[in-house]
Task: inverse folding
């Protein structure tokens, strides 16, 4: 077992399926954990996810259209409601009880549409990663994106859990000085559901964006906190306070604050969708600030995609070859261990359910 | 065995290889039943089909050119006549008896070029589906097309054998009212070599094309007849007569008549070529009528291609999963049974030949 | 075993990796014998080749950049020198002894960069095909190219070892009269490391290029000499002298002389890179002559690519089917035998090394 091993999927977990506005135009086709899905709002507005395959002749349902009672197959007109039940078969009165398609538990919370890919009986909403900042757009206006990437989703998690790459991948954007990243003080810990690290750069000159954002006059204490929640979410909080404000004890004070949600949803073993949102917690009254934030973050993440897709290509061609661990891998190794623990827990659940 | 099972190919059968004018520019490369072929007219003008692979160094013959004695390989100049016999090897007088490439029986009839893909000794021209209307272009001027589709050929046959899809797939073109299609009276029967159905819409208002075509003043009796001939042809006759003319007893009277030949030639298990011709039997003296007919039919068939290719993609990813039969599948099920009967007959022949 | 069999690669051999100027812009990524490589000049200017995969997290090194001490990985900054040794790991002082990537012996000679793909201990520079004409650009100004081709490399060698194809493939360029090629006198011989043939066309009218190049007034004795050196180089010398000068005894006299290096480096079993250079040994003082030479040769070789890629496609679909040998295959059969002898020798070496 190695830190680039392609792990099995965690099935009993909530994944980000889409942003709510991706359903604004009706039907959305998306593959998650290798399962083709069709997403739409049912007549009551509830986000729903069905397998994207009609039970009649296997036509993809996303070629169909929304009707009063659900989604209508675009081939022969069968209709399915949000629960997957077939509610109309043209040309016959009798709808056999087994007529229907698989549905998936879906929860819309914090302006995120989550989907449960495992056993519906185990879908526990309390396991959804809370992200309350999305609900307070006055204080946390945000921008967001959906990126389709040709890599195993854990390579994106690895990327977020090792910031030493900033100086090499992001030389044209946020890179900065290599030694600043490598020598930053790191606190790494396992959490109940993942791993967390915080990097502190104390008494440093704030970068221009920070000054512009928070009006700093002198030096600041800066931090970057990343928390991985198994299997596929990373919650980031970066910020800075004036030196002397006691940032280490209490970061919840006025200053520079940036919160980024990273959710990496597996499509196949070697492809994924990267959902990110970035919340501007410093110039909330200036709409331009959020636009500028998007303009800074999006090109940076595109830089990551290039190298990580290359990494995946190399891993594909020789997946079992050993790699060299280095000191900087510490946090990503903790994340990988947390994932493996969850996989073991899940295989225990599955074994139990099969008894 | 299911109605979407990918069946083996019927080998001992005539398939449409191409339209005659596809040979007007010389050499045509085409794959049928997974066999790469080169088609051309021999020096006498007879359409010929050879395997598209030189016996010398395996170069595709379709890179070559037509010479007086046949087709000349474009690599080292070997020449093959229409029977596949090698008639020239540059640099040597002696042509070994085994020098040659496989040839296929080809028959040009009714302005269609048919090919026999099985044992040449069994090629029986009486089994070619007759299509005499092509020969009477004064009475039946026609338009035609060649479409390359990413689906098993039987999915196209299914499509033609179940017209309930009209209301869902063809909403922008010929769709019309769903219940009209679903409730149309259907007579379905097995025939000696396939299956046939006729749908009657009696005493109905004719659609504008029909009125324009045949000058109807009042209501009509309409029909749509589709006859599937194993393995891959469907002959369609749609039309209408004034109410009171006794259409059910004798359709061969002046009125609106449209004949469509559908021939679906397998390329691989999941790709095919759709040859269709549509003959205008109502405004034969107006060349614009046939052009308009093409303009109506071609976009309609393109609508089918979209959803059927999607259906194939879903079947590919889980080919053995059971489907739900519905009432509207009746005619296509008859067609599938006719195909399977032929496959059983063929495996009997093959077994016999091997004894 | 057939003359189109896809043979295993000869590993213990020198292959052309690139032209020197391909390294002018820094880093070059190239796959040879299915191994992804990164090529660059080390700080001393020595051409180096490493596997294109960082030992840390498998990122392709060609995404990186050249630094003072070698090549720096573009993901987390590890640095490797030209020997593959890791010389820097950001964030840690200690570099473990096994940190490094595989390097390949590289020799730059005669303006060609050669790489040894086998056991480095066996890399014997005396086995490099000498090509001294590249070093005398006053007497032999040359043009060159790199072509990426979808065929097994031996299909390109076959092509060069059987010139009867000229009349069929190159009808628009250098083709000429089929019988002239087929009937040309051929002397074929096995050599220590390959096979060689020379074709003589005595007392013939020189083609226009020859007349323009060497000022011939009357008939000439022409030759085309091709020498295959195992596994993947063909050295060509074509030319003509005035009749009476005794060309058969001594070709090293003033006249028309053209030397072409053909080096075909395998990428995978079914793809290769074709490096060629063509040296103008007739109008050395006129720079336009070399430009014109490129303009004649490049389109000709592109004609070969088309048909050979088609040939590969046919071989792929039925690799074990027997082919028909003809008289014209003689020289290419000698070349194939030489290759097989080398493969047997190599498997002997390998067996010995494993004892």
Result:
């Amino acid at each position: 077992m190695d830190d680039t091993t392609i792990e099995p999927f965690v099935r009993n977990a909530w994944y980000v399926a889409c942003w709510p506005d991706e359903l604004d135009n009706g039907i959305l086709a998306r593959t998650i954990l290798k399962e083709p899905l069709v997403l739409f709002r049912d007549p009551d507005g509830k986000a729903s996810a069905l397998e994207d395959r009609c039970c009649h002749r296997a036509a993809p349902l996303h070629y169909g259209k929304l009707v009063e009672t659900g989604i209508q197959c675009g081939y022969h007109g069968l209709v399915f409601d949000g629960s997957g039940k077939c509610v109309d078969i043209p040309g016959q009165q009798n709808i056999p009880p087994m007529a229907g398609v698989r549905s998936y538990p879906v929860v819309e919370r914090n302006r995120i549409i989550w989907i449960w890919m495992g056993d519906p009986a185990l879908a526990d909403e309390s396991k959804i990663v809370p992200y309350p900042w999305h609900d307070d757009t006055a204080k946390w206006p945000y921008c967001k994106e959906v990126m389709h990437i040709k890599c195993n989703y854990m390579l994106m998690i690895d990327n977020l859990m090792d910031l030493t790459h900033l100086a090499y991948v992001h030389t044209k954007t946020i890179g900065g000085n290599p030694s600043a990243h490598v020598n930053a003080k790191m606190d790494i810990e396992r959490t109940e559901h993942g791993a967390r690290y915080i990097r502190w750069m104390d008494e440093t000159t704030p970068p221009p964006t920070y000054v512009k954002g928070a009006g700093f006059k002198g030096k600041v204490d800066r931090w970057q906190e990343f928390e991985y929640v198994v299997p596929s979410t990373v919650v980031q909080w970066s910020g800075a306070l004036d030196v002397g404000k006691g940032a280490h004890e209490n970061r919840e004070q006025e200053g520079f604050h940036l919160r980024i949600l990273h959710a990496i949803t597996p499509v196949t073993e070697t492809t994924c969708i990267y959902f990110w949102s970035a919340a501007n917690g410093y110039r909330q009254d200036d709409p331009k600030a959020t636009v500028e934030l998007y303009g800074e973050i999006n090109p940076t993440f595109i830089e990551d995609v290039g190298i990580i897709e290359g990494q995946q290509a190399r891993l594909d061609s020789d997946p079992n070859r050993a790699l060299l661990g280095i000191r900087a891998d510490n946090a990503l190794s903790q994340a990988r261990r947390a994932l493996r623990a969850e996989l073991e827990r899940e295989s225990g659940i599955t074994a139990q359910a099969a008894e």
